[in-house]
Amino acid sequence: MLLHVHNLHTRFLRGITFELETPQNLTILGFNGAGKTTLAKALTGLLENESCRIDRTPVARLSAKTRARALNYVPAALEVFDEYISVEEYLRLSVVGANSGEVERVMAQVGIAHLAKSGTAVLSSGEAGLLLFASAMLHGARFTVFDEPTANLDSDKKIAIYSLLRNSPLLHSKLVITHDLNLAFALGYPILFLDGGKQLFYGECETFFTPDTLRGFFGDSIKRVGDYFAVAFS
Questions:
Q1: Phi and psi, residue 188, nearest 5°
Q2: How far is residue 20's CA from residue 155's CA, in Å, rounded to a whole number?
């Protein structure tokens, strides 16, 4: 299956062009307000357009069933309309491409098995993020767009999510929106870098993380120490 984006223009985006074929992956980087979440919504049909296509068909013209199996957008924050729904109930409603028998195993892998009977409305921001990730695994779309999947997580949970992004057979092609340069570098996926709604870089991870490229985008504000990246406070 091919996700093809050609010359995507919206109110906030200008001329975005790239393509992914399952099981290829992508990391989407950019400053605040660069258009990353707008791009995620355009890719998954939440923002209607004719530029994003699955194979040859615009996402907007896909049937609801086909779109659900092809694309999934995982937002940065959990929103529920039933404050009494439990974690386990929420996940059972998430099953699209996986067998319902996977729910318990996925909860254990993500580290939320102990929350199975807890109400989703009382979860911490970190627990809610883990629930969204588990939901994406059970959805099993061919292309899953994650919006800041490691935000609000402790270090050990970030490592667990990184491992699942790299290794889970329930996740096919991943498009990972993140501000975390260390996560982007560790994943090693090709990089799409946005600024002001424009595509300033689309290429291999190794090329993006060369000193000249980093300096061109971040100036002297990012310092590399071995395989880690940190803000260089003056």
A1: 75, 10
A2: 30
Fold of 2-231: Rossmann fold (3.40.50)
For residues 133 and 123, what is the distance between their CA atoms, to the nearest angstrom?
Answer: 14
Model's pTM, two decimal places? Answer: 0.93
What burial letters (b/e) apply to 83-120, b meaning 16+ CB within 10 Å?
eeebbbbbbeebbebbeeebbeebbebbbbeebeeebb
Q: Beta-carbon neighbour count of residue 15 at 10 Å?
A: 12
Q: Which two tokens stand for residue 20?
A: 């992914």
Q: What percent of the chain has pLDDT over 70?
A: 98
Helix axes 87-94, 125-139, angle to 10 degrees: 30
Which pLDDT tens digit goes with each residue over 94-122?
887 556 678 999 999 999 999 999 999 99
pLDDT digits (tens, 9 = 90+) for 66-96: 999 999 999 999 988 887 899 999 999 988 7
Backbone angles phi, psi at 11, to 5 degrees: -60, -30
Alpha-carbon dihedral sign for residues 85, 96, 153, 73: negative
Report the distance separating Cα 213 and Cα 126, nearest Å: 32
Tokens of 107: 């909860």
Count Cα neighbours of 198 within 13 Å in the Cβ-side half-sphere: 2
d(CA 203, CA 205): 7
